[in-house]
Amino acid sequence: MAEKKIRNDASSSGSGGYNRGESVVVDVGRRRSSCGYCRSGRDSKMSHGLRARSLTVDHYQALLDRGWRRSGCFLYKPEMEKICCPSYTIRLKASDFAPSNEQLRVSKRMQRFLDGTLDVKMRDEVMDEPDTSKSQITSSEVRESLAGKNEEMNKTEQFMHYLSGKIDNAVHGFIGSGNFPCDIQLPKASINKVAPSKRKLLVEGSEDLLFSSNIPFQIAAALRRAEKYKHDIKLSRDSAGKNGLFLELSPNIVAEKLTNSLKQLVESTGLSIRACNGHINFYSAKKQAGLDEVVAIVSSSKESLTGSGIKRSCSKKISECPQGKRRRFELRLKRSSFDPEEYALYRRYQIKVHNDTPDHVTEGSYKRFLVDSPLIYVPSTGNGTIPPCGFGSFHQQYLIDGRLVAVGVVDILPKCLSSKYLFWDPDLAFLSLGKFSALQEIAWVRENQHKCPSLEYYYLGYYIHSCRKMRYKAAYRPSELLCPLRYQWVPFEITKPLLDKKPYVILSDFSILPSEDSTALNALKNNMELQHNDLGREDMNDILIDEDKEMVELDSEDSEDESRQESSGFTSVQLEDGSVSDTLIGLNESRLRYKDLQHAFGPTERRYLETQLQRYTRAVGTELSKQMVYSLE
């Protein structure tokens, strides 16, 4: 009877006593990993981790309000006082949101695009997926790459776009094969047309020099900038490294590598390619053939596309819609599940925007990261306590003219919509879909608060003040940061000057300033108004993945409890009671309090388990340790 009552207590959570299921977690303890923000090159990130077999929305809401976050079914909480880049949970009360001028411009730009009045001037690239297993380039590929272009574009410009796309594909190929580092964002290639008057000045006897690219210099510069974080960016000239000699990737070496991979262009495009002083130069294979003649040969090719391994994302791009024609915009909210169309978009996004290698963007990794969820779905009851869609994990699809252009991965909880990740169509980067989706999610909270009054907040994940790329989140105002010690919410305008001086601060010490500091606070507010429109220029999609990917598939580390409290010079506070006697334990389908179970363990086992339970209780809080099931299975 006692066991049955415990089970009911653990599962009867939420409004009106509705049974929302049972949270069952496995404690994986402390974890170390390298930091994806400062890239210090050492294991400077420390967190507490849980694997959730099931999780109620109420318990996850409580965990969010203690600084936790999830990646798939893995839950993690940074140990703030011990890490290089402290991560503060940030939220916004949707009803108080005041959009900045920049955010208003994003909305207006999207509206003009949908109305057909936006003059779209963008680089219209062929969206081929890099195929590192095949390096052949045929003239029929050139024909296909040109066929979908805007007819008004000059053929020479089309051809230059084609060449730059092939260089980018070669770069992706070297990343996939390990010849170029995979953890550095490399620039995209650009092609320059060489004026006839300058051809002889560049290279002796180069009357037939048509195009040139300096991308090897840009790649080499990107590698040099990364050396302060990684001192071992050296690769062997031969991929097997048989002679044991490693050479720094200078512009000359990068140019040679890329040129060798593009030799097939000689036969298929009427060009020859040579590396020269760090440049990639394109020549007419036919001596003194004119530029128009070369382009005409390429564009008039009649060969069919067979066996090339090319994969096109779409035969008709949205951006090609005739100006003045209205586009149809749709938002669809669906429960989290695998969707092949979403995965195809995610794969393109990761490869094109984040420079992930194709072999790293798999269905399995995608499902673990963005589809799998431990949250137990709660359907709407129609009584005003749950929104019409219910509570749980969802994918919000953005469609234009029926085509999927972005997907926002979110959790809808009793108090908030928690934004987890966004991926979007790289062809539509000019629309700032990251910012646009954030505005849509805020609007969704405001609309659904009328149907579910408890749903008030928009959670943006973690805010890391020491990382400039993360500061965009503060542009969604008025926001609050979570104090890492007392778990109180503190207005960002108060926390900013503190974080400017020190990365880790007990924010609640400063939440109530003395009256004599009111002048300073007013000056701070004025300063924030001036800075407001300079924030938020990074897209919403670039940050969460770094944090989430860092925490997936890491090895747990056993260590002694090093918990400490940093003095801020203000009022000290006692940590929560570390008593573990009422911790709910799951063992062989049974649910027992630790105090009723401890007699089953010997002294050594009991001492070890109590140490683990104390750390767990401190991380999740005493109340949650009594409600969530700590599984020993």
TrEMBL record:
> Start and end of every N-end rule aminoacyl transferase C-terminal domain?
341-483
Listed transmembrane segments: none
What keywords were assigned to this record? Acyltransferase, Transferase, Ubl conjugation pathway
Single GO MF descriptor: arginyl-tRNA--protein transferase activity
Compositionally biased spans, kind Acidic residues: 554-563
Which major enzyme category is it?
transferase
**Keyword Ribonucleoprotein belongs to the record:** no
Q: Which SUPFAM superfamilies match?
A: Acyl-CoA N-acyltransferases (Nat)
**Reactions catalysed, as given in the entry:** an N-terminal L-alpha-aminoacyl-[protein] + L-arginyl-tRNA(Arg) = an N-terminal L-arginyl-L-aminoacyl-[protein] + tRNA(Arg) + H(+)
Q: Does the keyword NADP apply?
A: no
Occurrences of domain N-end aminoacyl transferase N-terminal (ranges): 33-103
The record's InterPro entries line, in alphabetical order, gives: Acyl_CoA_acyltransferase, Arg-tRNA-P_Trfase_1_euk, N-end_Aminoacyl_Trfase, N-end_Aminoacyl_Trfase_C, N-end_Aminoacyl_Trfase_N
This chain's function reads: Involved in the post-translational conjugation of arginine to the N-terminal aspartate or glutamate of a protein. This arginylation is required for degradation of the protein via the ubiquitin pathway.
- The protein depicted here goes by the name Arginyl-tRNA--protein transferase
- Species assigned in the record: Actinidia chinensis var. chinensis (Chinese soft-hair kiwi)
- Lineage summary: Eukaryota, Viridiplantae, Streptophyta, Embryophyta, Tracheophyta
